[in-house]
Amino acid sequence: MNYIGSKYKLRNFIKETIYSVAGRNLSDKVFCDIFAGTGIIGRSFKKEVKKVISSDFEYYSFVLNKNYIGNSSYIKDKRIFIEKLNNIKLKEGFIFKHYCKGGSGSRQYFADNNGKKIDAIRIKIKEWKEKKIINGNLYWFLLASLLESADKVANTASVYGAYLKHIKKSAQKNLILTPAEYEITNNKNQVFYTDGNLLIKKIKGYILYLDPPYNSRQYGANYHILNTIAKYHNFIPKGKTGLPNYKKSKYCSKNLVKKEFEELIKNANFKYIFLSYNNEGLMSEKDIKNIMSKYGRFDRASVNYQRFKADKDQNRNHTANHTKEYLYILEKQ
């Protein structure tokens, strides 16, 4: 997925920095990714640690990580179910009605046929689960596959804060359900759908990786369509973009972020804490250093990083094409 703040291109830098501090043999260690997003960093450590704890308070993220982190064993017949869903008869459901031009909402997040296919697949996955035709592992696998496949044909400029006036080329393609393949391991991982500041009081481990929102953009607004597909519940979409009510993160508030961050660090029962943040975030480098230094030995690493594509599109007068990404390090004492 083309995801704001994705660490896909930075994963090698992050892994090598973590190795240099915490060691390379992590086979008996617990690794926690508490702002998991699409789960890239947790997935990078899945084969290398005793257990991964993954959490996010966006539901689409929970679904992705229930598959990529939570699923560790082989699922029989998963390809057969993917094939059945790819050949399903189209239906006019919630997504078509509210997020396609042919529906009553006149919004254009998807081409009409793709909206109908999303509805048909989502309804069938729910039906299979309720009738116990599929178990939990297969349910999360199929639902994660739908989220990623729908995202590939979305008629947006990378995020769902708005849709495009005309159907772009990639959105004209027919949706094909592609399997969201995960790594098979012996791990018994944990995946949570909750506020990280609440979860941190209930867990412990060796490495805590933090990748909170950097700025005022709320993920609940930017990815609301994925949450809607994942939850598939009835509500009245609001405004031009069809927003539901959504949870707002305190990490996106200039006035609240420092207090929230310090609470997280203070309550963390982990030996090493690594924080991804960039030089344009709501917290300054000084803010972060002042907070983390209170709780142990502080250090940092950095790398130049190409700005997220949607940022460049939305800020055409911004001269910088690169930003500096920091990995702040705390050995807690």
3D architecture notes:
The chain is of the alpha/beta class. It has one domain. The chain has helices at residues 11-22, 40-45, 59-68, 78-86, 94-99, 112-130, 136-152, 169-172, 196-199, 219-222, 224-231, 257-267, 285-293, 309-314; strands spanning 30-33, 51-56, 190-193, 205-210, 270-278, 296-306, 322-332. Strands 3-2-1-4-5-7-6 form a 7-stranded mixed sheet. 41% of the residues are buried.
- C-alpha geometry: globular
Tell me the distance between the termini: 37 Å
Which blocks of ≥5 consecutive residues have pLDDT under 50?
Answer: 310-320
Radius of gyration: 20 Å
Average pLDDT, all residues: 94
Contiguous helical run count: 14
Count of separate structural domains: 1
Strand tally is 7
Secondary structure topology:
Layout: H1 11-22, E1 30-33, H2 40-45, E2 51-56, H3 59-68, H4 78-86, H5 94-99, H6 112-130, H7 136-152, H8 169-172, E3 190-193, H9 196-199, E4 205-210, H10 219-222, H11 224-231, H12 257-267, E5 270-278, H13 285-293, E6 296-306, H14 309-314, E7 322-332
Helix pairs in contact: 3-7, 3-11, 6-7, 12-13
